[in-house]
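Revision sheet: structure tokens.
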Amino acid sequence: MECNGCEFRPELYYDAEFQIWVRIEEQGELAVGMTDISQSIAGKIMHVRVRRPGTARPAGKPVATIESAKWAGPVPNLFDCTIAGANTEVLEHPEILNSQPYEAWIARVIPTQPAAQALAALLTGDAAWAGYQARCKRDGIECKRLPA
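Predicted:
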């Protein structure tokens, strides 16, 4: 599925601005990554830093920091969690976030509450698709993937 060239995956969970996606992983971990919208707005990703594994992160505090050619900022945390690990491939080659934003997760986290409760406030499926399209159209976002 796509809108204005921005890929959307209905099985993922999204924040209200469609900047961050979350995917359920094995053993209760959740993978966190950037959406196609987010990587397009950021431009070429130059550097990624993830908090140390074992670090507790309350909702609203970043799990990682992204630097691009035109922007630097946090990867927001959407629920209370502990950092489980970073994607070493993304740390070594951050530009893959531009070419594969849904395959290239940034961090894995362990929510302090059950995953279903942590994800309850996020959007998924048809509701997420409607919001994703609205964001692309409202802000005139056209997605482009940079080669890895």
